[in-house]
Amino acid sequence: MARLVLSECCGLAPLRLRAGRGAIAAPSAPASLSAAALPRRGPAAAAIHRDWALRVSAPTRLTSTVEGEDRGSSPLGEEAAGGEFDPGAPPPFGLAEIRAAIPKHCWVKDPWRSMSYVLRDVVIVLGLAAAAARLDSWLVWPLYWAAQGTMFWALFVLGHDCGHGSFSNNPKLNSVVGHILHSSILVPYHGWRISHRTHHQNHGHVEKDESWHPLPESLYKSLDFMTRKLRFTMPFPLLAFPLYLFKRSPGKKGSHFNPSSDLFQPNEKKDIITSTASWLAMVGVLAGLTFVMGPIQMLKLYAVPYLVFVAWLDMVTYLHHHGHEDKIPWYRGKEWSYLRGGLTTLDRDYGLINNIHHDIGTHVIHHLFPQIPHYHLIEATEAAKPVLGKYYKEPKKSGPLPLHLFGVLAESLKQDHYVSDTGDVLYYQTDKKMT
Questions:
Q1: Which parts of 35-140 fold into alpha helices (H)?
Q2: Where does 214-324 have alpha helices with state H?
């Protein structure tokens, strides 16, 4: 089953600082840390920016790429030779224009407001569990599993915000809350935070991305038929996350629990030990509750909602970066940049669930500026749309429930199988034997 690990998040170790033209372009900080305000050189300024970048899970250096190199070489930039929109062309705008369009208050983090969402979600989780245990009816359990699994996913999103530093400006508060939320749903906080940072640093890069990135054709064809079948056949892709935590995905090595993993830098070992210990503590709590309450009750109260949460996580993260109705470019080599990679993400509408899972479907601006709190993402996106133009794809309205997205997911799994081993601007190809 280890080979089943889907490309839920596959990439290289977190990026090191490096100088020169090939350096990573970062999203700008809030006004107080904007590119204009940061000296280009100097150890003190570099240290301040390095600390900010690591806390928000953003790339680790600002370069001129942010302001100039992402712009298209033609006057229109976004138009192909035939006059049709080309989503893989360099955009005629930079991160600075997008940042300038977003109101300044959208960057402000309110820890009290963030904690109110935590309190709300925890109260609902405990209330649902208490009600289901008291009623103990097979008419109620399926409803409980769907609701509680969705709430576990909501807890995950708040922990995700802690990892980005968008929860608050206090790193200690972010770490404490993040550990509690993520450990409660069996996610190693620092381990996943760091690998997710790598995803944001390399989004849209074929080899270096860490979240549902494509398999190169040679790697895809090296997999046996059964592994490929399971990789692209529902519902197996919705069970990828736990396997990914332990063994990542095809072509990658490392575990989120091992401080010596390729995922982490040497100075992050203590963080990984801490988050792994917290994860093990939660496993101990669950084992104790199983002994006291019995395995069947724990299966109903925790295990089944956990699987629903995993399905939500895999589905949402996949749909952020795939969609058969929108052909999305992937990059490698000189064609990749932080901005172009960020523009490969998609916003999705989840109807009533948007508020429950903290608007995580509003994803394009989140990828470009992960330090913006989730409760400002919708406003920031609306403000940025005139700048993004055709590079922003308006999400299809789902109604109360996002049932159509299951069809989008299934169809994408049928069509999006691999990309070419060569080339720098790539699109998914289909293995017709799998359709």
A1: 43-55, 95-101, 111-135
A2: 217-222, 225-231, 240-247, 269-293, 295-298, 304-319
The count of structural domains within the chain is 1
Give the whole-angstrom CA distance, residue 257 versus residue 245: 8
Q: Which residue has the tokens 């479907």?
A: 361
For residue 165, give both structure tokens: 């530093």
Instruction: Give the dihedral sign, CA 233/420/17/73.
Output: negative
Residue 47 belongs to a domain:
no
Q: Which domain holds residue 357?
A: 107-434
What is residue 429's three-state secondary structure? strand
Q: Is the pLDDT of residue 25 over 90?
A: no
Nearest to residue 162, comparing CAs of 310, 50, 277, 56?
56
Q: What is the pLDDT of residues 252-286, one digit of tens each?
A: 888 999 999 989 999 999 999 999 999 999 999 99
Nearest to 151 by CA among 132, 166, 137, 165: 132
411's CB contacts (< 8 A; 6+ apart) are 324, 325
Q: Using alpha carbons, list the distances in angstroms from residue 121 to 107, 171, 175, 355, 393.
A: 23, 21, 18, 11, 30
The percentage of residues in the chain with a pLDDT greater than 90, rounded to a whole number, is 69
Nearest-angstrom CA–CA distance, 242 and 239: 7
Which residue, chain included where needed, has tokens 């299951």? 406
Q: Considering the entire predicted model, what is its pTM?
A: 0.82
CB-based contact 341:203 (threshold 8 Å): yes
**Closest CA relative to residue 393, chosen from 70, 160, 85, 99:** 85
Residue 320 has pLDDT above 90, yes or no: yes
Residue 50 lies inside a defined structural domain of this protein: no
Domain contains 218: yes
223 domain residue, yes or no: yes
Single-letter amino acid, residue 406: F
